[in-house]
Amino acid sequence: MEKAKNDWIEGKRQDIEEKLQNNSSKKAYELVKDLTSLKKGHTTTIQSKDGNELTEDQDIVNRWTKYCSQLFNRGATRKPEVLNVAPVNNI
């Protein structure tokens, strides 16, 4: 594994050197930036309603579906007295 990584880095180094020799500094800069930039990991996990971590794609889709369904289909709390108040026009 270490040899493969070193070979890959050596190939990138040669590409950068070639770009610099051909006066393609923009391309060389892009290669250096790609080689040295930090990659942030992306995790796709959420918690189930009971707090367990879900990692499988289908489980995550099902949880979001259930969550949104509960969020948008819950009963609205109403104050009946609000409906009986006439609007006030302050013109």
Primary descriptors:
single chain, 91 residues, mainly alpha, 2 domains, two-stranded antiparallel ribbon, 4 helices, 2 strands, endonuclease, endonuclease activity, nuclease, hydrolase, Endonuclease-reverse transcriptase
Brief write-up:
The chain contains four helices and two strands; from the N terminus they run ααββαα. The longest helix is centred in the first third of the chain and has 20 residues, at 2-21. The chain has a two-stranded antiparallel sheet with strand order 1-2.
Written description of the protein model:
- The chain has 91 residues and is mainly alpha-helical.
- It has two domains: 2-36; 43-84, no CATH class.
- It is built from four helices and two strands, in the order H-H-E-E-H-H.
- The chain has helices at residues 2-21, 25-36, 57-72, 80-83; strands at 46-47, 53-54.
- Strands 1-2 form a two-stranded antiparallel sheet.
- A hairpin with a 5-residue loop joins strand 1 (46-47) and strand 2 (53-54).
- The longest helix has 20 residues, at 2-21.
- It is elongated and about 80 Å long.
- The termini are far apart.
- The model has no long low-confidence stretch (mean pLDDT 85).
- It comes from Plakobranchus ocellatus.
- One of its GO terms (molecular function) is endonuclease activity.
- Keywords: Endonuclease, Hydrolase, Nuclease.
